[in-house]
Write a structure and sequence with these properties.
The protein has eight helices and six strands, in the order H-E-E-H-E-H-E-H-H-E-H-E-H-H. By secondary structure, the chain is an alpha/beta fold. Strand 5 (131-136), helix 6 (143-156) and strand 6 (161-165) form a beta-alpha-beta unit. It has helices spanning 2-9, 49-57, 70-82, 93-101, 108-121, 143-156, 173-177, 182-193; strands at residues 12-16, 34-38, 62-68, 86-92, 131-136, 161-165.
Length: 206
């Protein structure tokens, strides 16, 4: 039953294989080839232990934690640890709230202070959390604030990647991309955020 639910929730399967190419081995972040999916469980569903058991039995090794409270995220991380899973990107509701405020609502100093607090909040799960999820499908108007948040995470947690998922190339130029065209949208993102890797959606079955 739960395996069926998970497969229905899966929009795509992502194979993650981040590893260091030379130099000292990383103490945090990705160190092996991982198999994950998108998306769910969400909200209070993360408190259902049967979901985590089923996810593990399906053969997935790492799972995203979407926008959720600190308490719910910690409970989910406990289940991940119990079933041998890791979290490839964790989204904390405090970070999402800061990004929503934008550069006019929060200062760079306040963002850095918040990022430090968030990282410290999950210190006991350093072995489980492999990266930080910042935002899903931002318009170009969010790139400035995302660059500040991403830079703060790079500063205070340099061994873990930040995850930002761009719109697909068929998104609305005016209402979603807020750019001249898709190439302009991607170039603005790369220039502003300077990500460790480029990630974007493409729902080819929709």
């Amino acid at each position: 039953m739960f395996k069926r639910i998970i497969l229905m929730l899966t929009a795509f399967v992502t194979l993650l294989g981040f590893s260091s190419c030379g130099g000292a081995p990383k103490k945090k972040g990705f160190s092996q080839f991982e198999i994950t999916y998108y998306h769910g469980p969400q909200g209070s569903a993360v408190l259902n232990e049967e979901f985590w058991k089923a996810i593990s039995e399906c053969g997935f090794t790492t799972v995203p934690l979407e926008d959720n409270s600190l308490a719910n995220n910690k409970k989910a991380l406990e289940f991940m640890r119990k079933y041998g899973l890791t979290c490839f990107s964790l989204c904390d509701s405090r970070i999402k709230a800061a990004i929503t405020l934008g550069t006019e609502g929060i200062t760079k100093e306040e963002i850095e202070e918040l990022v430090q607090k968030v990282i410290e909040s999950y210190a006991e799960y350093d072995d489980i959390i492999k990266g930080w999820w910042l935002y899903d499908e931002p318009g170009s108007d969010k790139f400035e604030i995302l660059s500040i948040v991403a830079e703060a995470f790079k500063k205070y947690d340099p061994e873990r990647e930040v995850f930002i998922d761009l719109f697909p190339n068929y998104a609305s130029v005016e209402s979603q991309l807020i750019a001249e065209d898709y190439a302009d949208y991607v170039n603005k993102y790369l220039e502003a955020v300077d990500p460790g890797y480029l990630c974007y959606d493409h729902y080819h079955f929709l």
